[in-house]
Amino acid sequence: MSPDVTESAASISTAEPSTLSGSSPNRTPPNRTASTSRPRYGGASDDTPDDVGVVVAMPAYNEEGTVGAVVDAVRPHADLVLVVDDGSDDDTAAEAARTGALVIRHPTNRGYGGALKTIFVEAAAREANHLVVIDADGQHTVSDIPRLVATQVETGANVVIGSRFVEGAATDAPLYRRFGLWVINTLTNLSLGTYRSSQRLSDAQSGFRAYDALVTRSLAADETIGDCMAASLDILYHVHRNGYTTAEVGTTITYDVDHASSQNPITQGFDLLSAIATTTVRDRPLLALGFPGVAVALLGLFVSFFLLAPAASLGLVAALSLVTLSGVGLCGLGFHRHRSTRPSRAGGSVSPSGSGSPHTLPED
Questions:
Q1: Per the database record, which ranges form the Glycosyltransferase 2-like domain (predicted)?
Q2: From its phi and psi, is residue 5 left (phi > 0), alpha (psi between -120 and 50) or beta?
Q3: Ranges of each domain in the chain
Q4: 193: Cβ–Cβ under 8 A, 6 or more apart, which residues?
């Protein structure tokens, strides 16, 4: 399909989204004036106001069969519906524009995270008060959008997550997927330092989220968010590092839809585990390096001097000594990284089930 598509009165242009160079989490982007230099992408109307209340946005890749129905269902709940067509080779962009969405097209497939970054930049440029991100495949319950926004207003949470695993939630996720989500949720909470049940996120992988204006601007300016599915975790780490608050509300997510995921779940799982490991080493080095180092050092000492010392060969003792030294080295590296990263750390907070005030996440 050609980059220039005309469907009814809507045109779709292949162009880069608005940029917010120099934006910071605590500074509102400068007021923008109508200018022919700013690209318009088609769909709803080229006269959409810059300052909008609720923007509902969805990344889309080869979703021509569902995106139109989702846009239709979303429109009563949004001041602006935004679809980022991430290099689809079908008629996703045309279907989204036909049903009234504002469409931005990536010339090539950049990945889920790449589409999210475009969404954050565009929503921040339009000074959206609330940005709600949903999937374009029909998995999410559109009627829950007002609940996420209302929870954000009532609690003041910067991010509200539609969770599959809190009171009022429902999902038909298969058993293997539930287990995988449990593993990812557990590791994510450990990497965030949320050890108590009252502080944990129940659904770290939910893509159904509402962001307020402050965190939207902050995410738009963050160049460290990755392009793959692990971007959902990168966002949570960003929220935690910058001291933003999070709440959860129960929602219904169904897997009985066509093309519910365009990525192999095994590949996706490895991407997520890699992101958790990388971020934990960077942000919580005592947890990732220090504690394992202590365990390795103690194991080496115990085996060397209490079990094998009387009869062990010199080579075996030397090998075990090397293991012990490796453990000590891990401890030292973990402590050094902890000291060097701690001054820039800030705790975030989470409010399970979206009730009450958000709770503060602990630091190391």
A1: 56-178
A2: beta
A3: 8-257, 284-344
A4: 284, 287, 361, 362, 363, 364
Its pTM surpasses 0.85: no
What CATH architecture is 8-257? Alpha-Beta Complex (3.90)
CA–CA separation, 50 and 71 (whole Å): 20
From the centroid of its chain, how far is CA 21?
21
In the chain, the DSSP E strands lie at 5-7, 10-12, 54-60, 80-86, 102-106, 130-133, 159-163, 170-171, 209-212, 245-250, 252-253, 349-351, 359-360
Question: How is residue 190 written in tokens?
Answer: 């450990």
Query: Two tokens at 142?
Result: 């559109």
In one-letter notation, the amino acid at residue 112 is Y
Residue 322 CA to residue 9 CA, distance in Å, equals 72
pLDDT average per 10 residues of sequence, the chain (364 residues): 36 49 38 31 43 91 96 96 97 96 96 96 96 95 95 97 84 78 81 76 92 98 88 91 94 70 60 62 55 55 54 53 53 50 45 45 44
Radius of gyration of the chain (CA): 23
Cα 95–chain centre separation: 26
Asked if 79 and 54 touch (Cβ cutoff 8 Å), the reply is yes
d(CA 25, CA 116) in angstroms, rounded, equals 17
